[in-house]
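Entry 14. Two folds queued back to back today. First construct below, sequence then structure tokens.
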Amino acid sequence: MTTDAPRQSAVQCLSPSGVHRMAYVEWGAHDNPKALICVHGLTRVGRDFDRLARALADRYRVICPDVVGRGRSDWLRDPNGYVLPQYVADMVTLIARLDVETVHWLGTSMGGLIGISLAGQPGSPIARLVINDVGPRVDAAGVERIGDYVGKPVHFATVDEAVDYITLISLGFGLRNRDDWRELTQSVLKPEGDGFALHYDPMLALPIKAMTPQIAAAAEAVLWKLYDQIKCPTLLVRGEKSDLLSRETALAMTERGPRARLVEFAGIGHAPMFFDPAQISTVRDFLLGA
């Protein structure tokens, strides 16, 4: 297992409003042909996967991007572009940069939806897929909870204030102690004046606020169609108390499309964060074919 710090890099991507830069960190040997891409949730960043990446860097070249609008990546000129098709196009550009034929993929929440959208394409480069606590159908309760805080202006005088806030809005992560919450908080902070702000574009909430029942139903139908077209081995991870991925939807995902193998983690909500060794082992064993 390597403990080396990750390498930082970026790739240029294209949207209808122009070129933007997507940052990523890379763990493991740069010439390893086995690549694992780990993609975070809606307001998170690639450094969420540091512990998982360290545990897998002996077998993979692990790539953890900051999806556009988050972390060290650029913000889009047109916030209406913060949608799955743009994210998928950016990931295709990233894979081209890696110069590999296939990749393994782990996606948390939004990252899982990006994974479904790409894995369901004809000729997809995804050879193994881990979907973390999300599916084609997302529960309204979870969407409402997330919508309550996404995009709201917040400012923290101290890191401890930020830790309190992230703990409050992210209780479902199920982290065990204050140090874990601090680690997860520091990666999403940026200096602002005499304090700190969250490191994402508040305007990424715009497409969420514009969502109607009709748009949501159409998006779900598209995602189920893509899911049903997935051919690669698939692992579905669910927090037992998730308010975004219902058990009903999770079970449906085991019975159609790639017939995902379902693993649930007790006492966790939305979403498991792979800080726990048992969660990391579950993913490692699946990805390596055990």
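Second construct, same run, same settings:
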Amino acid sequence: MSSHCRRSGFFSMLALLAAFWPGMASAVVDDHSPKRTLRICSDPNNLPFSNQRQEGFENKIGDLIAHELNAEVEYTWWAQRRGFIRNTLKSHRCDLVLGVPSNFGPALTTTPYYRSSYVFVYRLDSGLNIRSFNDPTLHDVRIGVQIVGDDFANTPPAHALTSRKIIDNVVGYTVYGDYSKENPPARIIDAVVAGDIDIAVVWGPLAGYFAKNQAVPLAVVPVSPPADRSLPFVFDIAMGVRHGDKRLRTELERIIERRSKEIEAILDEYGVPRIGTRLSSRNGRSGWKSVISSRH
């Protein structure tokens, strides 16, 4: 992921290569062994990824990992904004962060447990059929794009639009948002439903979850091309531990390999769109799990 996206709070986006070390103890501990503590740092207000009520898919995957480790989860809640890793993982407040890019430098990352993409989101009744940044229609519609700061050009979709001179019809929605409200990043999807914008370019897991819970049917379509010059739009999502904590990383990778079906089921439940999903180096699938959704 670009350095812009790594700072954007999408710690909820990542990918893993299984590294099984001979002779290391199994990740599963006998149920009668003393419980250990799995310390996870998460955002308390950021569905579909996590919240303090533990309703997000990262919370569910954390529970799955804890069960496999015969551990109890202990959360440290911290808003996923600039300084999140510095104030959590690096300061030893926790040992695990879910949902980081697989090439995320500040942490030692596992193999990916899902792969997703930025997506176009628009109402099915809009008559739009946009699938590419090169579609000339983008010059004539109101576009919502996720931004990090105030420059409107700091995420890959924002750069892609700017490079095509699509500027005047673009509206920025901060990934941080008003933290006093539930799930602040969801405002960009609300704007599509309300008709404030015609189309949004959104990180896939966020779009898939909120799209499927709307009364108005929405299309969720992966952006094309999958990369634009040096800017990728598709990312492998992994788990991050502190540099040097190779033992925990190996345990996590074994769990990702062994419980891949359960992880996939959790992602499906939350409407997380995936592309070229591969949960380990030995288990690969291709294709896009798309979403065209309405609330039933």
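Quick look at the second one. The helical segments are 3-6, 57-68, 84-87, 156-163, 187-194, 204-211, 246-258, 260-269. Residues 1-29, 278-296 have pLDDT under 50 and may be disordered.
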